[in-house]
């Protein structure tokens, strides 16, 4: 046997994990023998991979036998085998895939159910899809389907997807919405809805199906759509939209106006639901009281926490019944390792991570759960019961994590994410952000507003003093010192806005330390109140308020930003999102903006610098950049 | 998906076939090469923000793969440093210069050649490459010896290689 033949055979054994150590050594010696052998080795690798790809991905079936020569054989099954090569595993996978996997779910929330033909319900574990599987995404859930290098599908918002024929990569969107990205020219995926069949390759598009009609928007490439009732077929290109009822192509879509996939942003979602049973994990009532964003898997109920808001036209008030709290987000695990989760606190609570649960009752000690996790994203959910607000420390629930034998610590906010379906546009500190700056008071020794180029009005006797960190800053006495600017509508605060400032409290004063308010107003939706309540940043248009979980420290500077956008209020603390919540009324006022005072009692006892009002909702990245630039 | 992500996927998709072959040449085991390829994809995405667009993306990714394989205990020619270096250089040259268009053309030729095989021959290929069956298991299923199976696979590869060369040169 010549060297070439021996190399070929030994290589075949090695590639298929059949070679013994001696055989591998023999192959190595052959390759080391001369250059020709080494060249032949490399060429053989090439040929082996070609063959493997052709057989795995090809659509050939064994040629039929000629009856006179061969006996009948069983029909040959082509087993679906897509080589998982994970081009970008970091966003969508959270564990290494075995090479025989054909298609896997990489869902990111617990709002996903997979129903198999035997009616088995499988909740959000890393499963392999099969033909006839049904995927149901809840209203809060989302689903990612990863086809390795062939594409990606994202679905949310109560969508239902059926796997028709896995080997032919055919799916039905029964209802809901999905976005798809099919990057390769040669890969084709087939989607159906109750109304249309869609064939596509090398395209990006969205599909939604409800109430007897399907809509397609194409962002890239081409999509062929065939109406099932009459076979009418249309090809859609970039910027085209179509509805199955009319089958007329609109070319009005502007690429960039629709976001294909949501963005991952730091933070986690919270939901409050009514409950009678008061058992974590039991959603006996589907009635949602409140929802929003926060940045820690920690609940400390007390004077500021544990109360929920009702509809935006009612005053905020202490909720008079216990309610169910859910915190849910993606946590980023940085390295393959063993992790221990510790659930502590005084409340009944429960957590879910990677298909495992951990429960704790109020009377029992801390609970631990140890898991081996690979690098990537994992859903984490914390459920507990909220009680009525009171001034006592209140009840708590906290998740901490331990890597190996290190100390327990809270999951850092920079490792917690949620999917943002409607991200704000980003502006950058190259001047764009300043286009929306409607007031800017550096307060470095004078009261000049840099935007209007004139001094604001002062009341009392506010002074500038030398601060060890920032030099000259404004000092207010907590009695009658405050500033008055233009009316809030002139500053653009009756729509979207971002109000921010650096603040340092020097000593204890009133429990409400006002940063921004409007003068002489006390009506719902007409009163601006941005202050520190018991040291927690607080945001309200009088009623329907929100409050952050971060506390300012006496004697320490902090950057606080309050943002309002389309009913959503967000508070940022030192550049990071502290809390967001929804269903807030817009501000409607033409009273002057007061800085450092809300009514005669709630005046600021402390220092201010770099006060800014933007008449736009700044992206979280812009707020972070602003903090970094001005600190 | 943002632009940067899409850009990375496009670039990586174009180099991935050659990259996989390169990895296999340094670590001749399909299963382990699959894992390495996946890891290289993740690492190169994570480092993509530091990638200088004036560099050659393919060479850059090959470098990441090389470093990754370097730490593998099953690396080919692990104990023969000089030969290992020679292999790295030769394989890198061969696969970096490999063009996607040429690969696709060759793949098409191979697909046609496979279709001309008879049923038993196709079955052997499918069992080996698609079902990843070991030669002993194939022998048991097809009622032959493992050695006969391996010999047949060798001959099939030779046959297909000749067929591809003929097709690429335009012969019928």
Quick structural overview:
In chain A, about 10% of the residues lie in helices and about 45% in strands.
Identify low-pLDDT runs of chain A: 62-103, 302-318
Number of domains of chain A: 4
Strand proportion of chain A: 35-45%
Total strand count of chain B, please? 0
At the fold tier of CATH, the topology name of the largest domain in chain A is Jelly Rolls
Radius of gyration of chain B in whole Å, from Cα?
19 Å
Annotation field: number of helices of chain A:
5
| Alpha-carbon Rg of chain A, integer | 30 Å
- For this structure, the quaternary state is heterodimer
Distance between the termini of chain A: 75 Å
Question: Could you name the CATH class of the largest domain in chain A?
Answer: Mainly Beta
Number of E-state strands of chain A = 45
Please explain how this structure is put together.
- Chain A has 631 residues and is mainly beta.
- Chain A folds into 4 domains: 3-57; 90-250, Jelly Rolls (Sandwich), CATH 2.60.120.1440; 263-417, Sandwich (Jelly Rolls); 433-630, Jelly Rolls (Sandwich), CATH 2.60.120.200.
- Chain A is built from 5 helices and 45 strands.
- In chain A, helix 1 (3-15) packs across helix 2 and helix 1 (3-15) packs across helix 3 (35-57).
- The longest helix of chain A has 23 residues, at 35-57.
- Chain A is globular.
- Chain B is mainly alpha-helical and 172 residues long.
- Chain B folds into 2 domains: 3-96, Rna Polymerase Sigma Factor, Chain: A (Orthogonal Bundle); 100-168, Arc Repressor Mutant, subunit A (Orthogonal Bundle).
- Chain B has 8 helices and no strands.
- Chain B has helices spanning 3-26, 30-46, 57-70, 81-96, 100-115, 119-130, 135-142, 146-168.
- In chain B, helix 1 (3-26) runs antiparallel to helix 2 (30-46), helix 1 crosses helix 3 and helix 2 packs across helix 3.
- Chain B is globular.
- The mean pLDDT of chain B is 83.
- Chains A and B meet through helix 1, helix 2, helix 3 and helix 4 of A and helix 1, helix 2, helix 4, helix 5 and helix 6 of B.
């Amino acid at each position: 046997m010549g060297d070439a033949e021996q190399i070929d055979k030994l290589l075949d054994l090695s590639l298929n994990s059949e070679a013994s150590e001696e055989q591998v050594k023999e192959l190595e010696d052959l390759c080391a023998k001369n250059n020709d052998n080494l060249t032949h080795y490399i060429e053989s690798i090439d040929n082996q991979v070609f063959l493997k790809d052709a057989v795995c991905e090809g659509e050939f079936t064994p040629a039929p036998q000629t009856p006179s020569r061969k006996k009948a054989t069983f029909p040959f099954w082509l087993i679906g085998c897509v080589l998982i090569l994970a081009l970008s595993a970091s966003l969508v996978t959270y564990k290494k895939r075995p090479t025989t996997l054909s298609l896997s779910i990489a869902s990111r929330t617990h709002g996903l159910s997979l129903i198999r033909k035997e009616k088995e319900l499988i909740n959000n574990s890393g499963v392999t899809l099969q033909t006839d599987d049904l995927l149901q995404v809840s209203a809060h859930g989302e689903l990612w389907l990863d086809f390795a290098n062939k594409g990606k599908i994202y679905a949310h918002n109560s969508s239902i997807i059926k796997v028709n024929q896995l080997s032919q990569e055919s799916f039905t969107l029964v209802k809901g919405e999905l976005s798809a990205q099919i990057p390769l020219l040669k890969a084709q995926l087939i989607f159906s809805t109750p109304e249309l069949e869609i064939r596509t390759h090398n395209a990006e598009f969205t599909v939604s199906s409800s109430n007897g009609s399907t809509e397609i928007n194409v962002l890239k490439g081409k999509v062929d759509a065939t109406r099932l009732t009459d076979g009418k077929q249309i090809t859609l290109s970039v910027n085209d939209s179509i509805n199955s009822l009319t089958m007329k192509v609109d070319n009005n879509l502007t690429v960039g106006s629709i976001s294909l996939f949501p963005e991952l942003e730091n933070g986690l979602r919270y939901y409050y639901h009514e409950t009678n049973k008061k058992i974590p994990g039991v959603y006996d009532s589907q009635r949602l009281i409140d929802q929003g964003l926060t940045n820690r898997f920690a609940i400390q109920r007390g004077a500021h926490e544990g109360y929920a808001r009702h509809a935006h036209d009612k005053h905020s008030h202490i909720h008079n019944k216990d309610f169910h709290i859910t915190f849910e987000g993606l946590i980023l695990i940085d390295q393959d390792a063993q992790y221990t989760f510790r659930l502590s606190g005084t409340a009944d609570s429960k957590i879910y991570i990677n298909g495992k649960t951990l429960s704790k009752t109020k009377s029992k000690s801390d609970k631990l759960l140890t898991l081996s996790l690979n690098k990537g994203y994992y859903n984490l959910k914390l459920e507990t019961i909220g009680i009525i607000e009171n001034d006592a420390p209140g009840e708590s629930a906290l998740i901490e994590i331990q890597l190996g034998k290190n100390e327990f610590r809270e999951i850092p906010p920079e490792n917690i994410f949620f999917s943002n379906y409607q991200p704000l546009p980003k502006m950058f500190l190259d001047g764009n952000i300043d286009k929306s700056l409607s007031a800017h008071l550096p307060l470095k020794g004078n009261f000049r507003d840099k935007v209007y180029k004139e001094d604001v009005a002062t009341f009392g006797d506010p002074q500038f003093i030398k601060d060890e960190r920032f030099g000259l800053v404004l000092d207010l006495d907590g009695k009658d010192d405050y500033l008055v600017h233009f009316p809030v509508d002139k500053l653009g605060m009756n729509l979207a806005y971002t109000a921010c400032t650096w603040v340092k409290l020097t000593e204890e004063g009133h429990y409400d330390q006002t940063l921004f308010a409007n003068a002489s107003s006390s009506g719902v939706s007409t009163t601006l109140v941005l202050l520190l309540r018991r040291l927690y940043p607080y945001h309200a248009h009088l009623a329907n308020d929100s409050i952050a979980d971060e506390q300012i420290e006496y004697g320490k500077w902090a950057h606080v930003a309050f943002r309002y956008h389309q009913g959503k209020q967000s508070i940022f603390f030192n550049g990071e999102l502290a809390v967001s919540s929804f269903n807030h009324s817009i501000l409607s006022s033409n009273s002057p903006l007061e800085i450092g005072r809300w009514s005669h009692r709630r005046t600021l006892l402390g220092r201010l610098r770099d006060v800014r009002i933007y008449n736009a909702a700044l992206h979280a990245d812009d707020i972070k950049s602003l903090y970094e630039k001005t600190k | 998906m943002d632009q940067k992500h899409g850009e990375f996927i496009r670039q990586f998709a174009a180099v991935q076939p050659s990259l996989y072959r390169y990895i296999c040449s340094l670590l001749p085991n399909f299963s382990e090469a699959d894992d390495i390829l996946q890891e290289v994809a993740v690492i190169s995405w994570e480092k993509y923000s530091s990638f200088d667009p004036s560099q050659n993306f393919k060479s850059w990714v090959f470098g990441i793969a090389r470093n990754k394989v370097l730490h593998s205990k099953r690396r080919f020619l692990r104990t023969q440093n000089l030969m290992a270096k020679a292999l790295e250089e030769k394989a890198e040259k061969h696969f970096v210069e490999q063009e996607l268009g040429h690969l696709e053309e060759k793949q098409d030729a191979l697909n046609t050649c496979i279709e001309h095989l008879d049923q038993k021959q196709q079955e052997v290929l499918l069992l080996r490459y698609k079902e990843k069956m070991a030669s002993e298991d194939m022998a048991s299923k097809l009622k032959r010896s493992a050695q006969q199976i391996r010999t047949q696979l060798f001959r099939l590869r030779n046959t297909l290689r000749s067929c591809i060369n003929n097709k690429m040169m335009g012969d019928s």
